[in-house]
Amino acid sequence: MRDLVRNLSLCFAVGCFGGLCYALGLWAMGHYGFTQWLGVDLAPRLSNAYLYQRVVWGGLFGLLFLLPWRNAWLLRGLLLSLVPAGLMLLYLLPQRGYDYGGVVLGSMTPVIILLACASGAVAASALRHMQGK
C-alpha cells in the first residue's frame, strides 16, 4: 500500500511539473511571436489562474505514468502527450466554441498544441526517468 501511495504521489508531482512546462511553453510561443509567425491566434496571458489550471490537469494526466513502460522515457513522453493534445483538440476547443482542432484560430493550431503538449510530457517523462522509474 505504501508503494502505491508513493507511486501515485510521484506520478502526480511529475505530471504537475509537465503541466507547468506545457503552460510556460505555450505562453512563451505566444509571447515571443512564434504562434503569430505560424499564423495562429493563440497567445495566452501568464496569470495564476492560467498556470493553476494547467498544473492541476498536468498532475491528473501524470497518473498515466503509472502505466508500465521500460527504459523508453522519450518515447513514453511523446506517446503520452497525445492524450492531453487529443482531449484539447477534439473536446475542449469545440466546447469553447471553436471547431475541431481549433483550425479557426489558424491552420497550424494543432501543431502548436501538439508541440506544447509534447514539451510538457517529455519534461515530465524525463523527470520520472531521473527518479529511477
Describe the protein's architecture and organization.
70% of the residues lie in helices and 0% in strands. The protein is mainly alpha-helical. The protein has one domain. It is elongated and about 45 Å long.
List the helices and strands and how they pair.
Elements: H1 2-31, H2 34-37, H3 48-62, H4 73-80, H5 82-95, H6 109-130
What distance separates the N and C termini?
Answer: 18 Å
What series of H and E elements makes up the topology?
Answer: HHHHHH
Mean pLDDT: 92
Overall shape: elongated
How many domains comprise the coordinates?
Answer: 1
Biggest β-sheet description: none
Number of beta strands = 0
Rg calc: 15 Å
Count up the helices.
6
Low-confidence stretches: none
Secondary-structure-derived class: mainly alpha
Strand composition percent = under 5%
How helical, in percent, are the residues?
55-70%
Transmembrane segments: 7-29, 49-67, 74-93, 105-127
Protein name: PEP-CTERM protein-sorting domain-containing protein
Keywords: Membrane, Transmembrane, Transmembrane helix
Organism: Microbulbifer epialgicus
Give me some keywords for this one.
133 residues, mainly alpha, 6 helices
Offer a concise description of the structure.
Keywords: Membrane, Transmembrane, Transmembrane helix. The protein is mostly helical. It has one domain (10-130).
